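Ticket #4471: structure output looks truncated?

Reporter: J.K.
Steps to reproduce: submitted the chain below (199 residues) through the standard prediction queue, then opened the result file.
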Amino acid sequence: MSGECQVKTSPDTRTKVWLVDDSESVRELLPKLLGEDQRLSFPGIFSTPAQALGAIRAGALPDVVLLDVNIGTVQGLDYVRPLRLQAPGAKVLMISTFWNPGVQKRALAEGAAGYILKGSPVSEMLRVIHESEQPEVSPAISFAENNLCRREWGKNARSESAVRGFRFPAGHPLRKVWKLLTNSWNGATAYAARLGVNF
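Returned output as attached by the reporter:
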C-alpha cells in the first residue's frame, strides 16, 4: 500500500471504518481481513491521528474509527475526544497488541466504544465493531439514575457474567435503559466508566 494516508469516497451504505495505525503491515492486513465482511468498507486508512482529523475537517466522516493505542511517540488515547468532537456520530474503538486494563479503563472514560486486541480472531473483531453501532443511551442520565445504578449494580458487578445477569425489576424506569446498555459487553463497560465503576 503506497503512501501513509488514503481516503476514498464511497456512495454505498456499508459501515465506513477508518483505521489509524503507524504499522504499515497492520494498515495493509487488517482492512483485508475485516473487509471480508461485506457490511464494512475501509475508505480511510491513516498512519497518524492528525491525518484522520484532517480528513474530517475536509468533509469526510467515518462510522467507526479503529485507533491504535500507541502510534509511534503519539498516544492514541489523547485523540479519542478530538475525534468524537469533530465526528460526533463516529464510534472510536481502540486497538492494541497488548491487553492493559488501565488503558481500557481510560479509553472508555475518554469516550471510546470498545477495546480490541490485534491478535483476536477476526470474528471477535467484527463482533466488537458491529456491537459498537448498537443504539447508545445518552450519557446525559440524571444524577438520581446514576446513583441508583451505582447502588443497585455498580458496587457488586465485577465480571461480565454479573453485568449480564443483573436485571432491574419489571416496571423499573431504568429497565429499558439497562436492556440497551447490556446489549453488548462494550456498552455495559462504557456505561460503567461513565458511572465511575471500576471493573
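Triage note (M.O.): checked the attachment and the full C-alpha cell line is present. The beta strands are 5-7, 15-20, 40-46, 64-68, 70-71, 74-75, 91-96, 114-117.
Status: closed, working as intended.
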